[in-house]
Amino acid sequence: MTASAFRRASRRAGAGPEVAGSRPAELPPSDPVPATDPSPNRAPAGEDAVTVKGLIEAAGPDPVRVPAGRYRERLELARPATLTAGGQSGSVIVELDGDLVVRADASLRGLVFTGGGIVVGAAATLVLEDCEILDSPSTALAVLASARVRARGLRITVSGGNGLYVGDDARAHLRDSTIENTGFAAVHLADRAAAELQDCVVRASQEHGVRAADESSLRVDGGTIGDSRMSGISAETAGRIEVEGCVISGSGLAGILVTAPTRARVERCRVTDSAGSALVAWTGTEPRVRDVVIERTGKNGLMIADGAGGVFEDCEISETLYPAVHVGAAATPLLRRIRIHDADQDMALDSAAAAVVEQVESSAVSVSTIPLPAAGPAPDPEIDVDELIEELEGLVGLASVKRDITAQVSLMRTVRRRQEAGLPPPPTSRHLVFAGNPGTGKTTVARLYGRILHGLGMLEGGHLVEADRGALVGEYVGHTAPKTTAVFRRALGGVLFIDEAYSLAPVGGGNDFGQEAVATLVKLMEDHRDELVVIVAGYPDDMHRFIDSNPGLASRFTRTLTFEDYDVAELLAIVQQQADEHRYTLDAGARQALLDRLGGIARGEGFGNGRLARQLFQSLTERHALRTAAIGDPSPSDLETIIAQDVPGP
To answer: Which CDD domains has this protein been placed in (predicted)?
Structure first.
């Protein structure tokens, strides 16, 4: 092995992206194999001391059976050799004075090497069975030039450099082997090299567990990769990457990092307990990921960076601290049959992303932003808008609101007719402010308004999604926009009704997160201006202040509908409606007692209106039940008639 070859093997790798989330940064470099200088062979003291070198020379081309014991010497295999431990595996310990250099085909069985590594060069083929390489000050096993290594039951423990380094055009195949406690990456592939790890254990690397750079190729079949200080697998190569049936756990950064436009395929793997993201597809990469379980990550489950692509299907993601799936700008992944659960947020999808999302579902998540079709009913051409208008007119009171809604319906009909005639529509704003005290029918009217617009073909679904500050505002920085977006997406095709909207802009709010919710809402309304209607509701004075708090709100909410308090006769009419619906009769005495009771209630901010009337009816039925229970054999008339005695006092 020449010094120049070692210098090529030991060149430092360039920086890569930091993968523990959605922000790029520098990764520290990794040194594969440091250079060494040859030193003279030293055998045990005494003229008759047995050396491995002496046994090889004495045997000639025949296999060598090395007696059990401890040997210390400088060793090089420049001609074909077969060395087997004379006792059980591990009974022969060779304390190397420098690296064991293999230049010819060799087979080593049951031997333990300490104090140095093994370097395989030229076109040599080395077979290792049940061998150990312990306490190597540099790389434990280096395979260079066009050499080949096949190892089974190999154990590499404690190396100052890489556990296994494969460079140039070399090949290595390890089976049922262990590489642990390495100073650099446990496995490092460079140049055009290729390696296969079959049912191997890789753990406790001070850098990556397995790193493939340049144009190298890697196959990992089964086994585990654990407790790497950096990534479990770092694919920085233009070559082929195949990872199947592997468990990757405890990575200090990403579980699997793909940073080069490699042909990466990951199947039937489990990635757990990554301090960063579990699986990262960096810009320009297009991995194929299938049947992967991801759980307990410090950042994203899948982090698909700006401009990345690939196919991700049949995966399960849970217990992530960042969104389970992050999709960056201009990213084009196909996400199919992904199940997300027990996470704070299921998906963070950049507005400029072009992801295809099919059969992605989530459960037990705080914030859901999966882009789904509108949650409301499908468009129904059989809806009779005139019947809905009659239903609106049948509501108690609200004379001015009914006029305004009817005018809006007429305008929308005109808009549709002009569009059908090929004429441009007049400027309109479907978004509304409902100003009024609680219990004045705002939610009921909002629901009817959505159904009417659906019947006119102006909304796809016409369903109503109710929200308040708690549904829109997050608990920490970066949480509010996803929560607001999630609620907004559920309302697409229908009506988003935000009650007590003024609480999003509290007096003297300063840096209150409600401002972020308002800004997010304004942007989404612009991006989806024809896909839904937003109605904001609350006390009149507070709603004026809310609309004035953001110029974007003032330009989008140009029409305010005022919901006046119900007068006494209207409140009685609501009680009468409740009685008719539940098959009760109010006699004359009850009606007068109700008028007196309703007229004596103080009015002011927070007056209950319709809610008060409904609560009063519930009290009537409870008192009626107590009274009729005392009647031995109540008649049908007794059971349905409410009298003055049933009306509660002030």
So the answer is: AAA
